[in-house]
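Internal ticket #5521
Category: modeling
Description: The requester needs a full-assembly model to guide mutagenesis choices. All entity lines are attached below as received. Residue total reported by intake: 579.
Assigned to: D.W.
Attached entities:
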Amino acid sequence: MSTSTMLAIETRDLSKTYRLGFWMNKRVLALQNLTLAIEPGQVYGLLGPNGAGKSTTIKILMNLVQATSGTASLFGHAPDSKEARRNVGFLPENPAPYEYLTGEEFVRLAGQLVGLSGHELDQRVKEVLGAVGMARTAGLQIRRYSKGMVQRIGLAQAIVGKPRLLILDEPTSGLDPVGRREIRDLILQEREHGTTVLFCTHIIPDVEALCTRVAVLVNGRLAREGSVQELLTTQVPLVELTIEGLTPDTVRGLGHPIEQLQDLSNRLLIRAGDAHVQPLLKSVLGAGGRVTKLQPARFSLEDLFLQAMSEAKHGSVGGEITS
Amino acid sequence: MMQQFLALTFNGFREARRNRVTVVVGAFALGLLVASTLLTNLSISTFDRVLTDVGIGIMSIVLVLLAVFLSSGMLSREIERKTLFLIVSKPISRALFLCARFAGNMLTLGVLLVLMGALFIAQIALYGTLITEAQFVAIGMLFFELLVLSSIGFAMSSFSSQMVSATVTVGAYFAGHLGGDIYELSNKAEDPLLQWVGKAVYYALPNLSRLNYRIQATYELPTPLPELVPHMLYAVGYSTVMILIAITLFSRRDFK
């Protein structure tokens, strides 16, 4: 078996352009040359602001949208083949199951569509409804469900066929903290069963809690990619200083490179590169300032995300628009 | 594959049932009751004919409207509400999804037709008038008319909104019953181009007058089965072409 068929998901130079307007003359470059390789067993996070291309990537993988160029495969199969989707469970953003069905009926229908029947289907429906905490309310029509309950039924239908790959689009959006925690626990549970998980979100704590590897998309392009550890440790170490007795202009006038300066009314919060901290300290003290706190700054995924955003070509979110 | 097809087909029927489409049968029963009460003043010989004419006429109007509503909104509603994201992402082809949804639609219309037909026959029996073979033929051929109309609504729904689909389907219904006139008019045109265009329109539109046996039912004129078969095949063929168009358009469509 070749390397590419071993990968759970592989994309090469994947691009998608939407044509808009009455004459279809406006082009939105929703995704540009995305290359990803996701190995089995990974929990992979697609991170990015609204309109970054996360959902477009997922829709191409689920054959809901066709790529303009490039290739994508799921366990070596093209997204438009039934074989590709046989091993995949999918939860779209804001899932909309048939409202006239009960939760149980919908999960049963999903089970039938993935090929389950008879006793195996009954057993599996019961199992997954229990796993998502819907065993008690599964007999109610979905139109009576809260958003959190719909999300759980969405997840139940995704896992009913015991997929090897779970693709989740914003699985925790709109949920209360308890609901988010429960969905996160379910994803972790699936990871422990060896399921590969690809999920996209803009909720950074979810990525930090769940992912082994992340890709940051900005304006339809891949801005960062790697393991969470790798991405955070390869950053230049920063030090955070809290200073009193000086104005922001005075500090800037000292002439040292500063990454970030925040005026907190009676004190200043400064972030500077490790190598520049000693001369900066000397200058601050020399100018009559008082250092009340000095600590290494933890570079978080949020910082990485914001850094990628600020480095992007456009200041705004969404794919590039051309005529 | 058959299991998936049946699951989706019966789900379509369940959708109609849960969305209280069966209320339509109640409305039909009420319509029949009101109509027959108004008609009791007519002479005995006319009463038989008018009862059949009105009964099958009401059935036809109610079911045609329902077919337009169900078929034109079926795919566009699924796309708009994004319910189909959860279904077409399963290991089934879009063609199977479409065919099963269409079959569910026809199952719903078929069941309603049978229920309304039973009510109509019960009413005929109640008034002690004659139950004829021609009445069954008219009711049976109505199903084929609904099949053609549904397939047009369905094909339109695969790429346009419910409003556009419904308008085109209603237009096709009226134009389909005037097919013969369009053909005659094109024959009378002097310009060969106009003749050609007229005939092209005639062949493109469904010829629904081929499937209309209401007059035969009213005048108790029997139609032998061999005469019906080509018309049935025509309806099935026309619907198949429409469904193939829907599959071709739907299979290439992006769902943003």
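Resolution: model delivered.
Comment from assignee: The longest helix of chain B spans residues 44-81.
Ticket closed.
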